[in-house]
Amino acid sequence: MSLRGTCAVAAYSLAGGAFRYTAEEPLSQFWWSLTCMRIGCCLALERVLAAFPLTRLVITAFGLLEAYTHNVRGRIPTDRISSGVALVTGSTAGIGFQTCVLLCERGVDVLVPARSVEQALKTAQLINEASKGPGIARPCSVPLDLASRESVKKFAESLTDINLLVLNAGVMMPAYHLTKDGAEQTVAANHLGHFQLATSLAPRLKGDARVVVVSSALHRKAARMRDIPQKLLDFRGAAQTHKLFDAYAVSKLQNVLFAHAFASRNPQIACVACHPGFVFTSVTRHLPLYVRLAHVLAVPFWVLFQKTPRQGAHCSLHCCLSPSFSAASLRGESRFVADCRVEREGLPPHPREVAEMLWRRSEAFVTNVPHAVH
Q1: Of 98, 160, 263, 363, whose CB count within 10 A is highest?
Q2: Domains of the chain, start order
Q3: What b-and-e string marks burial along 216-243, b requiring 16 or more CB atoms within 10 Å of the CB?
Q4: What is the residue-averaged pLDDT of the chain?
């Protein structure tokens, strides 16, 4: 990377850091953050290029440190509990796998679901080898396919009492694909399957029960879309209008709205949504080849901006264990958490009404009511 390019990255990071520490709490909308960081970057870069070499070096060093600290290292949760049972979807790889490892390291037993019992058994063994206890990972005896209503129903019926439910699994599908139940693949796996699983298990969540929904900062992109209420309620979609990132962003907004609606209906259960950060995991395995190739070629650059799966799991872990997110503390309200702290999520106009409509439509779909998908 050239000196000019390095200075640009450093100035961008310093501007972003200054904005976060002074104004992000009251004004945490993603678009405002990005705009202010861009303006700050331009102003800082002008000064950097005109500064003395030593000043330029110092600013660059601090900027690169800021980029790494915020984007990669982030905050590390320290809370621990001595018992509990968690179910983590998407636990066979990436953030889900590391969430299981971290929970086991902190004394939580973990149930490992997978598309096959053999895969669940293998994953549980790998988690136990990586964590070395005191918590134990156990394979689920019934396979789980979140894109299938029947599979989710059978899986939920096989479970006994649990304390933590981490809805982590997710897909990004560049090509339009309709499941046999009649929903577009992305919304089926990312939202509808998790909706059905959480609502089915709610009566069996015991003690300091929590539901953690792994969403994404991309939900804010969906909140600004034209006709977003209709997009949220259209589970079928259309091949002609399907766009990978749009479909993914809409599903992540559905996650956030679901967390609000679930919390209000189940005040005895804490429910929060979280953003793990920028983590390149197996969820991107369906991305076009040129995107994956570009990512490989840009590895030195991503060192400053991309978390490892273990670092990405820190936010989920914080939501699972922090006393701040107990049901007694939240009292029927949800939160959106990023980098282990609460942020204001991006929501569409009239969010309560939209969340209620999404809940009713989702409930109709998972119970197989005719005309639930339009």
Answers
A1: 98
A2: 3-73 (no CATH), 85-366 (3.40.50.720)
A3: bbbbbbbbebeebeebbbbbebeeeebe
A4: 83
